[in-house]
Amino acid sequence: MTGTVTNFLAVGRAVRTAAPHDLLGRVRAALAEYYEASEVNLLMADYALTVLQPVTALPHTAEPLPLSSTPEGRAFGSQAPHEQHVAQDGSVDVHLPVTVRGDRLGILSVRLPPHRSTDDTIEELTELAEVLGHEIVVASRDTDLYLQARRASRLTLAAEMQWQLLPARACRREEYAIGAQLEPAYAIYGDNFDWSTSAETLTLMVTNGMGEGIQASLLTNLAVNALRNARRAGIDIADQAALADQAVYAQHRGAEYVSTLLLSLELATGRGRVVDAGSPQLWRQRDKRVERVDFEAQLPLGMFDETAYVAQDFRALPGDRLIFVSDGVYAAVSAAGEAYGERALARAIQGASLLPAAAVPRAVLQELSSYRDADADDDAMVLCLDWFGRGTPRN
């Protein structure tokens, strides 16, 4: 046991002391030395969540792996180690989720000799993959390597701005799990989401800036940062909306505005407050029933000067699934001009019932993509919040 602990600590130390661009190189060397690994690869989930992109030196030439039909993809989807026996020499490839607080970054694949493929080793490697994930997040402040590896194609400038504005694509705590996704992932422009948690509250916001391309992205950036600035000053969500409204109006004088839905929940009780300022919708799945949750509609941010906003009461119960969608989802039209509609959206949400929160947005957007016009010029956002409540037993 002492030897395995020593091995674990040695590899962990190697990861934490590696240069930002050399995490994989140090991991490879350490795993070879302490676990007899003959091959180690790091794969990053791309922006569209369709493939796993190998981290290689630029230019990236290694072939991506599909998420839907590979052992690596199964490990990513299940968020559990997946073993794959290599026939020629009896070695075992172990595919390990690289995940940080629920945010699924990718997969670490390690090839081990048969005698090292034990339960204890796989448990240690699973923890080391998590350590690596944390270091990738920190290293990304100083290197573009891991962000570049996520790209199956080039991002538009507007999409670059929007992805850099996001907190993550998923988050998990005792009381909740969040997953979110934007589409088209490589050309998003106006839709966005944000969240922040403290010891007592969770605050969520979804935004939809009007317009297209850079103009929509700049508008959304202004609104999101104004909302963050107010939130970080300790102001309640009604006043957050009011201050962001003033910031957007001061810049655009009502010519451009941002539709926003703000939600603040007490972690201990599930009681919360909502400000509905525009087009994003909230849907709730409680038990087997899926329904839209209506609020009193208020003006989008920046439409008029000094708009006063009022927060409305809301309550989430343990087991609730809350789905936030932009108008690019519920107002999508087919090539024949038929609206997607509430019934189709409810079916898509119901169809994703068995998936974890992190996988729900992609599933709903995939269902939408089979319906909407391929030439549609609106972007789409889905955010899923699974509410467990504090102290509630979960399966």
UniProtKB/TrEMBL annotation:
SMART domains assigned to the protein according to its UniProt record, in alphabetical order: PP2C_SIG
Coiled coil: none
Matches recorded under InterPro entries: Bact_Sigma-Reg (IPR052016), PPM-type-like_dom_sf (IPR036457), PPM-type_phosphatase-like_dom (IPR001932)
Enzyme nomenclature, EC number: 3.1.3.16
GO molecular function: protein serine/threonine phosphatase activity
Domain PPM-type phosphatase: 173-387
Pfam families: SpoIIE
UniProt keyword Amino-acid biosynthesis present: no
Enzyme class, first EC level, given as a word: hydrolase
Alphabetized UniProt keyword annotations: Hydrolase
Protein name: PP2C family protein-serine/threonine phosphatase
